[in-house]
From TrEMBL:
The keyword Ribonucleoprotein does not apply. InterPro entries: SAM-dependent_MTases_sf. This is Methyltransferase domain-containing protein. GO terms for molecular function: methyltransferase activity. One of its GO terms (biological process) is methylation. It comes from the Bacteria. It holds the Pfam family Methyltransf_23.
């Protein structure tokens, strides 16, 4: 059946959500293997071909090995950047989004297919070869949910070590708290924050849309404002507070526009 979210509700079902206009995909086609959305740029077929040939575990292992092989070059590059004595801002887990004015750091991988090269290739699970207190700002955008929570805390510890007193850590993640509230509201027949239909429209059910935030894209942890705030406090940060898109303490803003709708932003300061 071609379920459409604006179709009238039958008895016992939720009424249609007033803002939903995207037809719901059928469950069978949604669950068919190999139906991950292709990357936006015209390299989707190349990346898709690589993905179909190499499983996620092998891809992850290849990234770690490639990153290790480039460790000496990365160490030299970081020493050079530090030696300049300029303000140092680190965008950790930059992916295909290089923030202007920031040193963009990621694993070795397929970013080159998108024409994007991180400034430095490094595995965040290892200590970055920079002195304590040598950095002015650290940013992680949609990276924490790719790390198990204990590894996420270790990443916050590393940011704390790297930052100078007064330096700022800014973290952005998919706001699972808002997604969950939206889901619960819609189950009760209320409008909710409309996050599910704005960011993940057309899924066969709201639960499958919610599950994408938990399980898809290589996610291994979920975050809400309370938990992320506590994570930064546990690492020793002070003045920890929820922020908004583009409103961070560090200029230039590293926030990427395509993350705006679903993101939770939290900042903290390394105390003196
Ligand atoms: C969803 S992407 C986010 C990319 C970019 N920050 C953005 O918001 O568009 C997550 C990124 O984290 C990187 N990442 C995950 N684990 C990492 C690790 N251990 N070391 C370095 N980068 C890592 C991945 O390679 C990937 O590029």
């Amino acid at each position: 059946m071609d379920e459409h979210q604006t179709a009238p509700a039958t008895p016992g079902e939720l009424p249609p959500h007033p803002h939903l206009t995207v037809p719901r995909e059928g469950l069978r086609s949604y669950l068919a293997p190999g139906t991950e959305p292709a990357p936006a740029v015209g390299v989707g077929s190349v990346a898709g071909a690589v993905r179909s040939l190499v499983g996620p575990r092998q891809r992850a292992a290849a990234k770690v090995v490639g990153t290790r092989l480039l460790a000496r070059r990365a160490t030299r590059r970081l020493a050079e950047l530090h030696g300049r004595g300029d303000r140092l801002l680190l965008n950790l887990g930059s992916g295909t989004y290089n923030a202007a004015g920031w040193v963009n750091i990621d694993l070795w991988g397929l970013h080159a297919l998108w024409g994007v090269h991180p400034d430095v290739v490094w595995d965040l699970r290892r200590p970055l070869p920079l002195p304590d207190g040598s950095v002015d700002g650290v940013f992680l955008e949609h990276v924490l949910e790719h790390l198990p929570a204990p590894v996420g805390l270790a990443a916050m510890d590393q940011a704390f070590r790297l930052l100078r007193p007064g330096g700022v850590l800014r973290v952005s993640v998919p706001d699972f708290g808002r997604y969950a509230v939206d889901y619960a509201a819609r189950r009760s027949g209320n409008q909710g924050a409309d996050l599910l239909s704005v960011v993940r429209p057309g899924r066969p059910t709201d639960l499958l849309a919610l599950a994408e935030v938990v399980y898809d894209h290589g996610h291994v942890s979920i975050w809400d404002a309370e938990t992320l705030t506590e994570l930064l406090r546990a690492a020793g940060f002070v003045e920890v507070a929820v922020s908004t898109y583009g409103a961070g303490r560090v200029d230039p803003s590293p926030d990427s526009p395509h993350r705006r709708d679903e993101s939770l932003y939290v900042e903290g300061v390394r105390p003196a």
